[in-house]
Amino acid sequence: MRPIAGLVGAAALLAGCVPTDMDGQLLVAMVAAGADAIERPPAVSDAEFDLGRALFFDKELSGNRDTACASCHHPRALTGDGLSLSFGTGSTGVADDRVLGEGQELIPRNSPELFNRGDSAWTTMFWDMRVATDPYAPGISAPSLVPAGLNGALAAQALFPPTSRGEMRGFSGDVGVDGSPNELAELEDASDIWAALSQRIHAIPEYVEMLAQAYPEQGPAASGMVQIGNAIAAFEAEAFALPGAPYDRYLRGEFDALTEAEKRGGLLFFGDAACSECHSGPLLTDQLAHNLAVPQLGPGKEEGSPLDRGRVIETGDDKDTFCFRTPPLRNVEATGPWMHNGAYTTLEGAVRHHLNVRVSLRDWDAGQLDPAFADSVSDEAEVRGALLARLDPSMETPIELSDAEFSDLIEFLGALTDPEVWELGRFVPDSVPSGMPVDR
Predict the structure, then answer these.
(1) What is the spatial distance between Cα 406 and Cα 174, in angstroms, rounded to a whole number?
(2) Which CATH number fits domain 46-241: 1.10.760.10, 3.30.1300.10, 2.40.37.10, 3.30.390.50?
(3) I need a surface site. Which of 88, 128, 158, 173 has the fewest CB within 10 A?
(4) Strands (E), 301-425
(5) Which residues does 44 contact at the CB level (< 8 Å), separation at least 6?
(6) How far apart are CA 137 and CA 286, in angstroms?
(7) Model pLDDT for residues 177-196, shown as the tens digit of each residue
(8) How does pLDDT run across 248-275, given as a tens digit for each residue?
């Protein structure tokens, strides 16, 4: 059982902290929203961590051998890529230096951060929640039947970007950067793609040795993609666990970890600003999908459609149209651009959208975007009308904040940042077993 915020009093006494009346109000509001400090997940072995790190940075897992997990989730870009919409296979560089490949389409959605994904509270992955676990039933729900033995939704998530043509797999007729044919692009079934990827990894002697060291009890007969998915998830869970934000320290009883402005902002977050209606629980997300009428940009997820209709593509349920999963807010100031498609390039803009959706959508300025995304905007009146017609009811009533209150709210969001987030570059390896270049 996790410790809960309502029990921080004992920790506070041990630390010699004295709560004020404001602390009492804030803690009551936090407990009501299920707030809790993040803890590090169980430690993994050095062998599994090293294997997962190598795979995370190795372009061998992409069809054209030009894209790694790290290409869109790089520590230098704070586990994202710093772009509104990602650049997939055929592109070069990383973070601010990434260049869209000639003739390549934008990836329809923003690359989400990977912070604290090893926390046991996580049950869903991807903006549309297409990979999920049910705490009350065994198994993993996913677009394709995943192999048995995966250690949860995070490990399952790692298997799907390599099956996406635009993200990592490539297109029929592609030739890899090493001149070899892209055999993955000629396959359609996810299980066949995973088998081919496993063959690639097992053809590299150093990986065979690393797999044996990381999973000595499983032997060579075990499913290679299960080991690959589990290792990548183990690395992500360990490397990107960031439990040291002032917010977490406050919940552990260090009442001086937050400034007075941050505490006032917290009272707004958990109170009149209504942020915690969706950004609740230990992860600061309800892990549910909502339509916030975010301005539309990108090529869309469905062939022939310029609009991204969100979760409805997975469920077929009309109520899920334009709905996307609530993002977690830990380290949120470091995760821009914001929203599922990076429509807002400042945190302040993203927050103001929540406070008055209709005005924000009407006044949204596409000029804030990098020119690379300018041609992908769908800002016609009929598009805005379609978004607003299905607006989440919780977004209907505007929330009025004074300039001082808004400033306090932004200050509180800054308190969700663990200082270690700026030091993640230490996890970039010097090399990977395939010999492919590592994006640094």
Answers:
(1) 50
(2) 1.10.760.10
(3) 173
(4) 324-325, 377-378
(5) 52, 234, 235, 237, 238
(6) 19
(7) 999 999 999 999 999 999 99
(8) 999 999 999 999 999 999 999 999 999 9
